[in-house]
Write a structure and sequence with these properties.
With 561 residues, the chain is an alpha/beta fold. It has 20 helices and 17 strands. The chain binds one RNA strand of 77 nucleotides through α2, α6, β11, β12 and α12.
Length: 561
RNA sequence: GCGCCAGUAGCUCAGUUGGAUAGAGCAUGCGCCUUCUAAGCGCACGGUCGAGGGUUCGAAUCCUUCCUGGCGCGCCA
């Protein structure tokens, strides 16, 4: 719709230039906006305002000339000049009703586009260390990342989702020591408890399972507990497998799927880590100091240089991170989006700097990052501190069990990633109308309910007749719904382009509100068959868009509630 | 001290990339079920868009200086 209007305005401007009314060198970017107020028509343009200076004429006068020069079109019934010089476009009924036909024809495809042109994009998210269960923060990452994947796929990208599985390094040793301490009967209060050891109760669970000789079946590994409290390696393998299994179950319960789990340990096994170090040394960006090997990341915009190899010989996490991202690049991903918590934002410049230092022709701003701010959890009006090491914990599993998957996902994705989020457990658990997800789902269920009622009456919806009679939709509530439905594809495109799934969540709430208002004001199953079927077409279009939108958020669309 | 993110109604948050009179939910008050599911609808109340300066036809939005909160500033990840 916007494109058509843009075309008309372009033609009008070209005509004015031809008449010598406008200088030929003006190259305006024609902006067409949806109006906020329906008194201002359906679409509005500010071209006259932005061109007034170049034209040497008052905006309203210029606007009048543009309107005069607009070619006739069946889409626009009239134009109006308003305010300081806006041109308001009023669309014809038939053009605004056409969206219903499009939705019914395209079904689940409505709102999808091919702007991604089938290009590959990789989205990495969650990537939690296997040192504890997933908590709310990981949940936000999972909800946002998964929704992002769905949005990208819906806009024509070839999406690969990936979980970087950090199964090597110091934190894993810490995990092994913590479990071992529990195996030896120590408690976190004990003076011999490992420094910085993980104190959570789940460590005790792992230790008990290990000592009992349980067998763990995780996605990619199967380990049986050796039961020997002195065998640190066996404990490490067991603990990693155990927590991996827990995370598998958490993600499954959250309906989040990954195409690939990438193991950090594989970067050591393949020699990629070593090769990366050697390349960085060969490129002359490193130096030794205090027994450690440093990378001069300050040459690439970092505020201080970073250690790659510790004085005791091991690598910091930074190096495998660089090796990992080089691997992504070499797999051919021209576009990579890393979704992670903002507490890790310092890795952004670091990883990019490391990649630049490799001199492989990787673009400076590669990869993209979507950082979500912290989640604050409230329970009984008080903040619950999330600390793996201290053991006080709100797990994702708890939330899913208590709140339900749909509400949890909706809450975690309904805010812009860059805003801090307060997750009120009592509110989310309340199962009342405070939960906006129910409000949206209820709108979907209501449409289904109308269809059921129709069937009970021994009647059926004649979709053809409905589409033929769309011009009967003349109520203000109906016009508002039509306008809202027409916006959906733009919302999806914008949410995908800006990595902001919450736009979809907000849109669905507004759409549901428009629908509920209409539902209360006007009966759908009226005697007049033409009107009835037209209204059924509209309600079915609403149902379809809600289903499409909820799917992008990973939330179900129930047929009854 | 430096960097990143934020500051909008009593609370939780939107705000279509600089547009017209700043919106929604919750909370509060008053109405609406013999009619397709009341998990709903309508009306009312509620604002110095953190503060000051700047940019222009026009600023919650862009620039700048402060104030406040969160996160980061490891040879942890």
């Amino acid at each position: 719709m916007k494109e058509q209007i843009t075309l008309l305005v372009e033609q009008a401007l070209a005509a004015l230039v031809a008449q010598g009314q406008l200088p030929a060198d003006v190259a305006p970017k024609i902006q067409i906006d949806r109006t906020r107020d329906k008194n201002h028509g359906d679409l509005a343009s500010n071209v006259a305002l932005s061109l007034a200076k170049a034209a040497g004429r008052p905006p309203r006068e210029l606007a009048a000339q543009i309107c005069e020069a607009l070619p006739a079109s069946p889409v626009v019934t009239r134009t109006e000049i308003a305010g300081p010089g806006f041109i308001n476009f009023f669309l014809s009924d038939s053009s605004s009703q056409a969206v219903v036909r499009s939705i019914l024809q395209q079904g689940a495809g409505f709102g999808r586009s091919d702007v991604g042109k089938g290009q590959r994009v990789q989205v990495e998210f969650v990537s939690a260390n296997p040192t504890g269960p997933l908590h709310v923060g990981h949940g936000r990452g999972a909800a946002v990342g998964d929704s992002l994947c769905r949005l990208l796929a819906a806009t024509g990208w070839d999406v690969a989702s990936e979980f970087y599985y950090n199964d090597a390094g110091a934190q894993i040793d810490n995990l092994a020591r913590s479990v071992q301490a529990r195996c030896q009967g120590l408690t976190p209060d004990s003076p011999e408890w490992p420094e910085d050891g993980y104190r959570g109760d789940y460590i005790h669970d792992v230790a008990r399972a290990y000592l009992a000789g349980e067998t763990i079946d995780a996605q990619d590994r199967h380990v049986t507990g050796a039961g020997d409290a002195n065998n640190t390696d066996a404990i490490r393998d067991f603990a990693v497998a155990y927590l991996r299994r827990e995370q598998d179950l958490d993600l499954k319960a959250f309906a989040v799927h990954f195409d690939l789990y990438f193991l950090e340990s594989s970067l050591y096994q393949s020699g990629a880590v070593e090769e990366t170090v050697e390349q960085l040394i060969a490129n002359g960006h490193t130096y030794e100091q205090d027994g450690a090997l440093w990378l001069r990341t300050t040459e690439f915009g970092d505020d201080k240089d970073r250690v790659m190899r510790k004085s005791e010989g091991g690598y910091t996490y930074f190096l495998p991170d660089v090796a990992y991202h080089l691997n992504k690049w070499e797999r051919g991903f021209q576009r990579v989006i890393n979704e992670q918590g903002a507490d890790h934002h310092s890795t952004v410049t670091r990883v990019r700097a490391g990649l630049q230092a490799l001199q492989k022709g990787i673009p400076e701003g590669w990869p993209d990052y979507v950082l979500h701010q912290m989640v604050t959890v409230m329970r009984d009006g008080e903040e619950v501190k999330i600390s793996k090491r201290a053991g006080s914990y709100v797990t994702l599993r708890d939330l899913i069990d208590e709140v339900g998957r749909d509400a949890t996902r909706y809450f975690l994705v309904a805010r812009g990633p860059s805003s801090q989020l307060t997750f009120d457990i009592d509110l989310a658990m309340s199962q009342s109308n405070d939960n906006p997800v129910y409000y949206i789902q209820y709108a979907h269920a209501r449409v289904c309910s109308i269809q059921r009622k129709l069937a009970e009456q021994g009647e059926s919806w004649n979709a053809e007749r409905g589409i033929e009679n769309l011009e009967q939709l003349q109520e203000e509530h109906e016009k508002a719904l039509l306008r809202r439905l027409d916006r959906y594809p733009e919302v999806v495109a914008s949410a995908a382009a800006n990595s902001e799934p919450h736009l979809v969540a907000n849109y669905l709430k507004d759409l549901a509100a428009d629908f509920h208002a209409w539902y209360n004001a006007h009966k759908t199953l009226v005697d007049d068959k033409a009107l009835r079927d037209a209204r059924l077409a509209l309600s079915e279009a609403v149902r379809q868009v809600i289903a499409n939108g909820l799917d992008l958020l990973g939330v179900s669309a129930p047929e009854s509630m």
